[in-house]
Structure formats: C-alpha cells, structure tokens
Amino acid sequence: MFQGRAQIEAFVAHLKSRDVSLWHACQLRDFRSYLEVGGIPSRSFLEQSRVEFTPFVTDTTDRSAGVWAKVFVNLEDFGASFAHSAEAVPNPYGPIVFQIRPEALLRAADVAVCLRSAGAHDFDRGSESLGPEDDLEALFLHAASAPFPERSMVRHGERLRSAVAPRWPEATAAEVSVTLDPELIPLDEVIAAWVDPIRIEDRDLSSAVEIVAESAGVKIRVRTRYCDEARRKVLADIVRFIDQAASAPSLRMLAGRADVLPETREWSSKLLSRDLGWQFARYAQYLAEGTIRTLEDGDAARVAPDVGATGTTQEAIIDRLRYGSRS
Fold first, then answer.
1. Which residues pair with 97 in a beta bridge?
2. β-strand partners of 96
3. What is the dihedral sign for C-alpha 23, 26, 32, 37?
4. pLDDT tens for residues 187-223?
5. CA quadruple 86, 92, 93, 99: dihedral, nearest 10
C-alpha cells in the first residue's frame, strides 16, 4: 500500500510520467447525487448523505471487506474496449465515466492498488495491495518511452497474470481504492465526463448529463464517447432490449432474438463463449435501475438547489458526516 506523502507523491509521479488518468464510472442516478455532494464519493458517503445511488450486487461484500468507505478509481477506461469493437461488455458500473487527474490522489491518507476486484468474497485490501517495493512497470503493456496513448495502457487478464506471476495468480485488472477525509474526490479534480452514446426515444443521455450539471451550477466538460459506427448500433440494440425486457434480461436471450442486428447476435454469442453472461447481467441490472429509469422519468435534472454555485449543500453534508449531526 502507498501511505504517507512521499510514497503517494512517488506513485502519482509514476502515473503522470505515463500520462495515465484515473477513471470512475457511474449511472445517471448517481451522477446527479455526485454533483449534489460535490465530488466522486465512497458508497458510505452517499449512504450517510441520504442521496440516491444505484445498488450493486457487491454492496454487502464491500461492507464486510472494509471498503465501503473507500473511493474507487481505475487506471483505465473500461468502457473503451466495447466502444472500439473488442469482445467486451460496456462498463457495468455506468455509461458516464469521469476522467480524473492523478494529482487527486495527493489528498489521500493511503492508496491501495489491488489486482482483482474488491468484490471477491475473500478480498483483503491490506495484504493484496501493491506497494512502493513492487515493480509498477508490470502493470503496463508498453515501455514508458512509448508514445501516447500506448505508454498509458495497462495490462489485464492473462497478460497481467503472466507479468505478476507467481505472486498474484488471481490477478484480473488493477483497481485503486483510496482513503480520503472527507470520503470524496472533489469535482475540481475532474478533467471531463465521457458519456456513452445512449438514446431512448427522444431522450439523449449526453444531453441529460449536461442538463444535470447546468441545473446543479457545476461547470464540467461533458463529452460523448467515441464509439465506432458498428458498436453504436449494437449499443442501441442492447439498450432497447434492456429497456423493453419484462424480466431480468440475459445475454443468452439477447443472442437469440430475431429483432436485433446480426452484429448484436454475433457480439452476444462471442461473449457467451467467454462465459461473460454474468457480467452482462450486472450491466443490464445497473443500467436499468440507474440510468434508463432515471432518463425516462422526465426529471433527470432534479438536484438540490445551489449545489456548486455556493457549495452550501456540500458543506452541510461534510459537516454532518464529520461531526455526527443527523439533523
């Protein structure tokens, strides 16, 4: 684990030398709450602030593993793989992803870089984190001297397991959890919010995100994610399928539908062959609860008054969490 100013500064410097950004994905429902509290928070912060957030399958595990109060970020944008035609599910945690300056970590008391999800049943943050003594170069696909964006690309899956063997046999992807007081990364550390090109009837997600930010009085760059044309069509099929599903939608159901594009059935079949049905199920559940319903309710821009403009709501929430008031 990286603890103390010197260790965290060295880790941040390493990320900056490779032009690595930090990334955090969320649903529209959560985005609205993030602006209300003034930053990218821990799940604990959201809960104690009494704002809405999308339930995750791993919430109970996060509590028992002691990471409920941690802020999570990643070293890569997990939504990019799908957008660029890889055999991947769109980011299950949300179609809105914050790109964050690595300097945001300088606010932390400690930074844990673990090589598998904190949602694992036997996860132990303290023993599983890399530290100053570890070779951080093993995380990256290319040498630091490579051009951008190659030098910022990180390993995952079998490439990561091979690079860190035999110490981390269950490595899948780097996940960063951070101890902060208060438990959030302020919005002024955000470079931009990138939004998947999702549209439901006459409601456009990027436009909804801009409306939420404007209503909150928060200045944040909102950009629609690049997605190649074939994947835009597949994404449209996926969203329509999830929106119209009468029961929990599954990847197998999607692969068998006649009313979707051949490209969508092909994508679904390839993911099924890789046993990624569980990941699609989470994506569908979170997207339906956290974004589609919020986008359809016609009230996507509802936020607390004066957030961002005066900071009053954010300051009141932080005071309540620090000093125990529940008024």
1. 25, 194
2. 26, 195
3. negative
4. 999 999 999 999 998 899 999 999 999 999 999 999 9
5. 10
